[in-house]
Amino acid sequence: MFALTADQELLEKTTARYLDSKYPSDHVRDLARMRSPFNPEEWQQGAALGWTSLLVPESAGGGSVSGNGLLDLLTVAYQFGRHAAPGPLIPTNVVAATLTRWGSDDQQREPLSGLIDGSATAAWCAPQRIDDSRRRCSDVGAQTSGAEIVLSGKLSPVEGAGDASLLLVPVTEPQGRSYVLVPLPAKGVQLAPLASVDLTRRFHEVTLRDVRLPVSARVGQAGAGDSYDETMFDVLATLRAAELVGALQRCFDMTLQWARDRYSFGRPLASYQAIKHRMADMRTALEASAAITLRAARAFGDSSPDASVWCSAAVAYVGRVVPEAIQDCIQLHGGIGLTAEHDLHLFLRRAVVDTHLGGSPADMTQRVVQLLEKAQGARR
Amino acid sequence: MTDDVIDIEEFATQARTWLAGHMPPAPRVSGSFVLTSTNPPEELQLARFDKCRELQRRLFDGGYAGITVPQQYGGQGLTPAHQAAFNRELVGYDYPAEIQASTFIPCLALLLEFGTEEQKQRHIHAILRGEEIWVQLLSEPGGGSDTAGAVTSAVRDGARWVINGSKMWTTDARYGDWAMCLARTNWDVEKHRGLSVFSFPLTTPGVDIRPIELVNGSTEFCQEFLTDVVVDDRDRVGEIDAGWDVVTRWLYHERTISGGSPYVTGRGNRPHDGPYDATEMIATARELGTLTDPLTRALIGEAHTLSLVMKALAESVTKKMAVGALPAHAAAMMRLFSGTMNIRRAAIGLEMAGSRAAAWQVGDDTFAQLGSGYLIRQVSCIGGGTTEMARNVISERLLGMPREHRNDAGPFRDVPRSPQAATTR
Fold this sequence. Notes:
The complex is a heterodimer of chains A (about 375) and B (about 425).
Chain A: H1 6-22, H2 25-31, H3 40-49, H4 69-83, H5 89-102, H6 110-117, E1 122-124, E2 138-145, E3 148-159, E4 166-173, E5 176-183, E6 189-193, E7 203-214, E8 218-219, H7 225-261, E9 263-264, E10 267-268, H8 273-301, H9 307-333, H10 344-356, H11 361-379
Parallel strand pairs in A: 1-4
Antiparallel strand pairs in A: 2-3, 3-7, 4-5, 5-8, 6-7, 9-10
Helix pairs in contact in A: 1-4, 4-7, 4-8, 5-7, 7-8, 7-9, 7-10, 8-9, 9-10, 9-11
Chain B: H1 8-22, H2 42-62, H3 80-90, H4 100-114, H5 117-128, E1 134-137, E2 153-157, E3 160-171, E4 178-184, E5 195-201, E6 207-211, E7 221-232, E8 236-237, H6 243-255, H7 278-288, H8 294-322, H9 331-353, H10 365-375, H11 379-382, H12 387-398
Helix pairs in contact in B: 1-3, 4-5, 4-6, 7-8, 8-9, 9-10, 9-12
């Protein structure tokens, strides 16, 4: 769906083949019963396929296959969505991209190279400050004392914190918002597991109590967090959208096959116009979702002035239509679609998380208008 | 493609310079699309069509008319990418928006595909110079979406044909010069196999054009009554009784108005989104004092998001069709999306404006457009083939789901028809 070049096709095919072999749906369901569905060995094999290096420039040990790493990564995220695959694909890549852009020389060595080769993974909690009064998921204060920075507060929900060796924490300092890279485990960091709709990802509430780190643990400038967020939101939004497209693709394919195979009143379901028309709507929503996601990644890679509008619009649209379309897939399956035995729910679960973690479609819709206003103000 | 084709970047740079020196800026509100129409009086409409002819002539003189049309017919012989580059440069300038549909698509496109050499020599140059505006006589009062059920008849009389019947939903027929017309030439075969396509000047005796008044006051569409209209056989387009081959492409080109046609200059016949453009919506909310209201902002954000998705979808589907990753029928997805997007935006516009769009100060165009735009909004799901038909095309042609049962497989003479389409000759 997203591969535009032969190299991207290869990346997507090898990823699809690998995920097919490691994560057939029976196994995905088994993962639900494990304490952690994360398998470090399999993750490292994925890293060797390129999952973690695309947003990092060659000079820092990464590399894109097309010159636009985010565009490349869409093909991987799409396959993650299609398989409801475990593994901290999005947080690891967002943190890698952050360290690449704003990390110190030291941070660009060991922590980053570990993320790239898959020996380490990262967790991140997106600061939801679209509207500061609502649903804050991060509230961590930081104070410098001498050569140390001391963090206290809470983050929730944080994906993959239980398996991560790096935690990127948005903090509030007297100078403003900043980012601090916390190596895990660390003294004063407590993880409390959360229950979740997603079976293949784990979420935690992270409590930090007087966590003391050298000031060099800060990523980038003190007080520059707000401006970093804009870029991180764009990467995050586009990858979430790509996973959502993959989840819908899988459900759509299952439903089309079901409509052909299932007979009622002596006719296949697929012969009823009421059902044909819904499949047509769903096919169009799928194509439109892929199109806006692709366009967003391209705008981001080109550093277009309106890139953030495209990326926000991607989640604003895809996050609204994909979960609804998957629910419609369930409806077209009838009762069987509601059972735990059927695979559909695996993808609905993934879609719910991707839609809401890191800014809901409603938040992203507000962000579209904010950005439009800002652009208009700038033009005047 | 030869190596001496001008590089797209260079072409765009030249176009930028040329446009700055030769084309006027876009008028702020010149919405010809019925959804945003404020229905100017006929003299103004006529003046606008004269302006379109003049703007088209300027494009021709500048070497920017028919960018993808072969040079021997007066075009530039360049690629769709050149047209796309020109269209990007054209943003902000006035251009002959109102004649893109029907003159360029489908009519010019069909002449290039099905026309005789004589027809191409005669018409393509004239179209590119702005001397011929074409209209399409396709739909009939007896049936809209069932195009192949046409009952307008053409009867052969030596080297001539005599056409009788009625056509409907012709955009701006009053301002056109030539028509492309579908007619039945054989009643004794299956309906798709008895059709032919003709062309004739709208000044031909027996052509009576009457405007249709829509619920928003628009008189853009017309109905035509054709009484013993005589057409030379040399003006037939395509083979006798093989008119459906032409119509298949006709409908295809028609669907590309939302994006992707190599023959369309600018953004088709919708120069802008009128009051539904995000900038306009923000200005309207500011005027209403509701710009800080989160619900209003959610509506504006949703409307803008939908238009971005439409843009991305048109780009992506067009590209995929060009490289064969999607079949031509995929254009139906653009048609469906643009229909559902436009009705949603009409609802958003009304909701945002509230009572001001229900009753407004005379001359307050924005609120007039938002109010009457809502009344007429289903036009975007009906005109140019209904969204129901688009859903059939997507499910049957793209997804391979079973075709609908039909009751019209035998000789057309025996097919049951609506009373309005009962004429059998």
